[in-house]
Amino acid sequence: MTKETFTKLVLESEETLYRISMSMLKNEKDCEGAVQTAILTAYEKLSTLRNENFFRTWLVRILINVCNKELGRRSKIIYIADNEYTAELSIPSHDKNVELKMALENLPQKFRQVIVLFYIEGFTVTDIKNILNIPEGTVKSRLSKGRSLLRNSFEA
Questions:
Q1: What is each CA distance from 125 to 43, 136, 144, in whole angstroms?
Q2: Which residues have a Cβ under 8 Å from the Cβ of 96 and sit 6 or more positions away?
Q3: Which CATH number goes with the domain that contains 3?
C-alpha cells in the first residue's frame, strides 16, 4: 500500500474513528490522542495488513485496542475533585437526536460498542466480530441487549 493510498483511506475513515473513540472515551482530548495513536500504529504496522480491502476494519480494531488501553490506564488513576478534570459529552451539531445520544452514552461499553459499530458506522455483524475479536453470536446478543436497554431507557 502506498503512502497516498494510506492517507486517502485514513481521511475517509476519520469521522468513523472519531465517533468510535468518543463513544468509548467520552473525552475530546483523549479521543483525539487515541485516533492519532491508532493512525500512527497502523502506519507503523502496515506490513501486517494482509488484505487492503479490510483496511477500515483493521484500523478500527487498532483504535479500539488503543481506547481499551486508555480506559485501563484511567481505571488505575484516582481523580481528586478539583474542577480541573471534567468529562465532557460532545454532541455533534449534525446529530439532532440528543436523547438518543444521551441514551447511547448511558449504555454499558460492551453494548454501546456494537450499537455504534452496527447502526452508526454501518459495519456488518461479521465485521464487528472481527473488530472486537468475539463470536458472531456474542455480537448478535449484544446488539439485541443494547436495543432492549435503549428501548427501556425511552420507556422509563
A1: 26, 7, 12
A2: none
A3: 1.10.1740.10
- Cα distances (Å, whole numbers) of residue 88 to 76, 85, 105: 20, 9, 11
Range of the domain at 39: 1-89
- Same domain for 8 and 67, yes or no, is yes
> What are the φ and ψ backbone dihedral angles of 71, each rounded to 5 degrees?
-65, -40
| Residue 115 vs residues 47, 52, 64, 87, 124: alpha-carbon distances, Å | 30, 25, 14, 22, 11
Domain final position from 37, 64, 89? 89
Residue 76 phi, psi (nearest 5): -95, 0
Asked whether residue 73 falls in the same domain as residue 114, the answer is no
Model pLDDT for residues 94-124, shown as the tens digit of each residue:
444 667 777 788 889 889 888 888 888 888 8
